[in-house]
Design a protein that fits this description.
Oligomer: single chain
Pfam family, one: Hpt
CATH class of the largest domain: Mainly Alpha
Strand content: under 5%
Shape: elongated
CATH superfamily of the largest domain: HPT domain
Distance between the termini: 83 Å
Order of helices and strands: HHHHHHHHHHEEHHHHHH
Keywords: Membrane, Phosphoprotein, Transmembrane, Transmembrane helix, Two-component regulatory system
CATH architecture of the largest domain: Up-down Bundle
Protein name: Hpt domain-containing protein
Organism: Photobacterium rosenbergii
Helix content: over 70%
């Protein structure tokens, strides 16, 4: 015979224990057959003959018990040892048997990295907690399920999608202080450039998905803390809406958006312009993006405004095509709703009113299980592209001015 490796192997021989067992069973049964009648006769016969028969019967029964002990107890232990030896031999003869894989774990350098560094992010934003909160909310809306997306894309063999997600995630996570996500996204992007499936790439994607959970918990804890702080501050103010209106009232044509805790309910209140400083240099506002209102919301921090616009462009370029594909494919309505809701939230934060308005209409239809036409989705795509173009134009002008 030949084994799995192609080498000859001897045929299995009959076990010595099995042969001995058959003989022992036969002797034991014979002793019992002889002992029981002899015991009966010895009990009925008087004198020396009867006592002799009883003694012989007892000896035969004891011998039968001894044989039974050796067969049932002692040989059982030897059989177990033989089974273990055979098992070990089988593993040696079959090299294709692989050990059980160990659970995935982070490398030592990634394990030592910070999950979410809120202090770093606050320092970057000059202590502006509202700004940090807005950035994190955008991250949660846009990227919180990127770990699951990248694993599904890899399972589908879509290496281009894996590379796109990892590249976007690498840039965003670096600016937010999520070091573990940044490190793993960078490794995934480097590995997927080979355009080939590998166990290393699969493990990296699984690890990336795994680190999202502690990061999401840490970010949510920060958001909850920020909400508590803002709630306490609002109770100490008499009329926060009127104070906000007075703060930005010197800007002509500015609109103050008042939103409650429900992101779906919003109203726009026009603020009457006050005296305008004629010496202040102003630029023609874009109909797609109100940079002046965004700058006011950021307390005049031009660097933060530019950073927000860069993140907006990077995260949403091509998102209109994704929306069109989701809206036209059956069973993808929830995905389309998530895209529209995320775009609406970003539009509110960036004061991009046209984008917010068309997304608001589409979102309401999706939530009421009404159909959203391809033309409506194409309008959202065109509005998004115009908003991105306005942001790019502003960044270009700012770079020239710098």
């Amino acid at each position: 015979m030949k084994n799995a490796s192609g080498k000859g192997s001897a045929s299995p021989k009959p076990s010595r224990h099995s042969t001995v067992s058959f003989i022992g069973i036969g002797i034991g049964i014979g002793l019992i057959v002889v002992a029981l009648p002899s015991l009966y006769l010895g009990a009925t016969m008087p004198g020396v003959v009867g006592y002799s028969l009883i003694a012989l019967s007892v000896m035969a029964l004891v011998a039968a018990l001894g044989i039974g002990y050796n067969l049932l107890v002692k040989n059982k232990g030897e059989t177990l040892l033989d089974a273990e030896a055979l098992s070990g031999s089988a593993i040696e003869m079959n090299p294709t048997i692989e050990p059980v894989s160990e659970p995935l774990s982070l490398s030592a350098d990634v394990e030592a990295m910070v999950i979410f560094d809120s202090d770093y992010l606050l320092d970057t934003m000059d202590g502006d907690r509202d700004m940090v909160t807005m950035l994190l909310e955008v991250f949660v809306d846009e990227h919180l399920d990127d770990g699951h997306k990248i694993v599904k894309a890899l399972q589908a063999g879509d290496f281009d999608q894996v590379q796109m997600i990892s590249h976007s995630l690498k840039g965003v996570s670096a600016s937010l202080g999520t070091e573990q996500i940044h490190a793993l996204a960078e490794q995934v992007e480097r590995e997927v450039k080979k355009q080939a499936y590998s166990e290393k790439l699969e493990n990296l994607c699984e690890l990336l998905k795994m680190v999202f959970t502690p990061a999401a918990l840490a970010i949510q804890a920060f958001l909850d803390e920020s909400a508590d702080i803002k709630s306490r501050e609002s109770t100490q103010e008499n009329n926060p809406q009127s104070e906000r209106a007075e703060e930005i009232g010197h800007k002509e044509g500015i609109y103050l958006e008042v939103t409650d805790s429900n992101p779906d309910n919003s109203s726009v209140m026009a603020v009457e312009p006050s005296r305008i400083d004629e010496s202040t240099e102003t630029t023609a506002p874009s109909p797609w993006l109100d940079v002046d209102a965004l700058r006011d919301a950021m307390d005049g921090d031009e660097e933060t405004v530019c950073m927000l616009l860069e993140i907006f462009i990077e995260d949403n370029a091509g998102k209109g095509q994704v929306l069109l594909a989701a809206a036209s494919e059956p069973g993808q309505q929830e995905h389309a709703l998530n895209i529209v809701h995320a775009l609406k939230g970003v539009a509110v934060n960036l004061s991009a009113r046209p984008l917010r308005e068309c997304c608001d209409v589409a979102e309401a239809k999706f939530k009421q299980n009404e159909s959203v036409s391809i033309e409506e989705c194409r309008e959202i795509e065109q509005t998004l592209n115009q908003t991105i173009a306005s942001a790019q134009a502003y960044l270009s002008k700012s770079a020239v001015g710098a």
